[in-house]
Amino acid sequence: MKINLAINTKQTTERIINFIKKTLGKAGFSKVIIGLSGGIDSAVSCALGVRALGEKNVIVGIFPYGKLNKEGLSDAKQLVRQLNIPDANIIIYDIQPPVDQILKLDPSSGKIRKGNIIARVRMTILFDLAKKHQVLVLGTENKTEYLLGYFTRFGDEASDIEPVRGLYKTQVRQLAKYFKLPPKIIDAVPTAGLWQGQSDEDEFGFTYAEADKILHLYKDLKKSREEIEKIGFKEETVKKVINRLQENEFKHLLPYTAKLD
Predict the structure, then answer these.
(1) pTM here?
(2) Are 145 and 151 in contact (CB under 8 A)?
(3) What is the DSSP pairing of strand 136-137 with strand 90-92?
(4) Phi then psi dihedrals of residue 90, to 5 deg
(5) How many other C-beta atoms lie within 10 A of the C-beta of residue 55?
(6) Distance of alpha carbon 154 from alpha carbon 82, whole angstroms
(7) Residue 213 in contact with residue 233, Cβ under 8 Å?
(8) Minimal CA–CA distance to 38: which of 258, 187, 242, 249?
(9) Where are the domains of the chain?
(10) Which of 65, 67, 183, 255 gets the most CB atoms within 10 Å of its CB?
(11) Is residue 62 left, alpha or beta, with left meaning phi > 0 and alpha meaning psi from -120 to 50?
(12) Is domain 9-190 annotated with CATH 3.40.50.620?
């Protein structure tokens, strides 16, 4: 069975642009703010925002944690130059001081908790800036991360509008190539940039290419684990992908709400 995740990049771009324009129009807004990490998802989301609204109507927040992920900071700066976003629309804050103050409250915090704090501090600043400038927060989450629960609740998944949540990671990469974004961004090893040497795929134990195909078969085409394995995927990989999906489905159901009627 051939698994085709290719998209019509021109048509997909037009549909997302229309979605952004209509959504902002209905909400009574004309501008957005986006947290730019230097990664491919935020880069594509930013490019879509510029195409939909114009570069003057996109505000960019770049929030490095000290010297962590310096390449991401450099790539983000390169992207805003390519997209011709005005300097006045670029806000750069080093979030290490506030994050470290929080970490002092409990010195036992490990790297996972620290990463969650970093993500939530970034989003706190982003939403405060959105209030200041009277704009909406443009999200950057793709479908793969959403289904696998690979996000910090009330952190990097928080947004007002999500342009690429309907696209798997490999499909986001197709748009990046279509937009001719910097090759360094397109080819970079996917990372949340929350600690030194962190890699998404190392954490998963499988690649995005494998995950996208398995998720497409399992969620979109409703294939069973056994059917997916018969197509040619390793049993261990199928198990890892589907188990992660199922273990994190609760993130899509929160908060649990008491039914009193």
Answers:
(1) 0.94
(2) yes
(3) unpaired
(4) -110, 120
(5) 16
(6) 30
(7) yes
(8) 187
(9) 9-190, 205-254
(10) 65
(11) beta
(12) yes
Q: Which residues pair with 161 in a beta bridge?
A: 138
Query: What mean pLDDT, rounded, does the chain reach?
Result: 94
Name the residue with tokens 């997909």.
12
Q: For the residues of 34-99, what is the DSSP string, one character each? A: EE--SSHHHHHHHHHHHHHH-GGGEEEEE---TTTTHHHHHHHHHHHHHTT--GGGEEE---HHHH
Which residues, 6 or more positions from 106, have their beta carbon under 8 angstroms from its beta carbon?
none
Bridge partners of 39?
none
- Give the mean model confidence (pLDDT) for residues 63-78: 90
Q: At what angle do helices 40-53 and 70-82 cross, to 10 degrees?
A: 20
Does 18 have pLDDT greater than 80? yes
Strand partners, 78: none
Per residue in 112-143, pLDDT (tens digit) is: 899 999 999 999 999 999 999 999 999 999 99
Looking at residues 144-165, what average pLDDT do you find? 96
Amino acid at 191: T
- What is the rounded distance in angstroms from the CA atom of residue 118 to the CA atom of residue 156? 10
Say which amino acid occupies 74: S
User: Does the pLDDT value for residue 197 go beyond 80?
Assistant: no
Find where tokens 């909400």 sit: 27
**Euclidean distance between the first and the last CA atom of the chain, given in angstroms as a whole number:** 48
Closest CA to 248 of 198, 204, 202, 212: 204
Residue 157's SS3 state is coil
The kind and range of the H/E element at 145 are helix 143-148
